[in-house]
Structures are given as structure tokens and as C-alpha cells.
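User: Could you check the structure of this?
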Amino acid sequence: MKQKLIGKNAIVTGASSGIGRATALALAKQGANVALIARNEARLNAVADEVRALGVQAEVLLADIRDGQQLKAAVDGAIERFGTIHICHCNAGIYLRCPAAELTQEQLRGMMENNFFGNLSTAYAILPHFRAQGGGHLIVTVSMDGKKGVPPDAAYVATKFALNGFFQVMRQELRREGIHVGMIFPSRTDTPQIAHVACPKITPKASPDKMANAVVKCIVRNKREMLVPYLPCKLLVLADAISPRLGDWMVRAFKLDGVQTGEPVV
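Assistant: Sure, the predicted C-alpha cells are below.
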């Protein structure tokens, strides 16, 4: 199979597990060198070994995306290491399962700091570099929760709707500068983040590899949005657009909220 990203250099945040790890490996299989950003050094080093085994370069950079200075230092380190960056995947995020009426303001702010402002900080850290070189791919992991709110994910949903709206605008503003902004909208994905949630058979958890392949496709084809899996996600979006009552019914009928079976992985 012909590699489609030979000679390209990429940054992936949240690269130590889940979609981030899968994306790093998918990009490496396509020939891209990868800078891996996350907080857990041991897990990052393990992913870096997997990336290097595919015949490309990997750089481990520690940063908490909630810390703008750490994040900028990591992005600058990736640029210094590779010389130029062609792809930046804003992927890091956390999940909180809690009914809206029971949330605290502190929990909501914490989610926004991580999922929304953390990913914005990543985008702002790479944007001057993309502008200076006249192009680049800025890919953002959003969620189907950014298209249709599903209980009891109110805080998580709020962050994902915020990402969706913000990057829709950024996509339009940066188009003429040759900067491609693409958003990935995964359904439930089989990652440690939701290991404590059981999903119905009609909407099983998808493989992180499937999401990673969508990221590669989004880059190669300059896609604006990728719904994964496409058909059931598109049906839900269309149903909700036609009638919010119908969209709410589909969430209940297909038990899209899932069932909590244990405590979340920290």
C-alpha cells in the first residue's frame, strides 16, 4: 500500500492512549514522523517505541494542555526537532459522566479548561508556524456529543459543542491562508476514558483504529468533518435537525447514554 504522508511531520496531543495513540500509529504507517504530547512519560515512551518500529521518527514531549506555557514549549520543541510541522491533531480530552442538575460550577470549569481551552491552546501554539509556512492541517477530535447532547454527559457535551462552534469559524477564517481545519466526530469509542460505560449492541464502542483512520482520511482528502461511524451518526444529526423531539427519542430508543458499570479510570 502506498504511503500517503511520507516526509510529513505531525503533532498529536493526548498521544499516550486511546484515539491519540491510534492516530500516532496510523500517521506513522503512512510515513509521517510524530511528536507525541501528553502527561504520562512512561506511556508516551511506549507509544514512541511503537512509532519508531514503523520506520519513522518519534519525539516525546511532556505537557499538560491546561498549562499554556508547557504546551507552547512542547509545540516549539516539536518544531525545533523536525524543522517544520505539517499536521497538528488536537486530541487531548477528559470525560465526566454526571447529570446536569448535579454538576458543580467547579466541575464545569475544569472540563472547559481541559477539553475546550486546552485544545484552543494547542491550536494557538501551532497557528503562527502554519501561517508562516503558508499551510498545514489542524485536526480536532470533537465528538458526536458536539452534535447531539446525550445524557448524562452535560459537562462533556458543553465542551464539545464549544469546540464545534469555535473551529467551524476558524475553518472558514483560515481557508484562504491554505490552512485546513478538520473536525472528527466519533461516537462512543473503546478507550480507557469510557471503560466504565457499557454500550448497547446496536451502538457498540468503535475501535480507536477506526477513528485514527478517519483522521488520516480527513488530512489526505482535506475533509471538513468526519462522522464516525458515518451512517448512524448522520441519521441522528438529520433526525435532530428535523425535530429535536425525534432526536431525543432516538437517544432514548437506542439507549445511546449507555450504562455505567464501574468507576471511571483516572
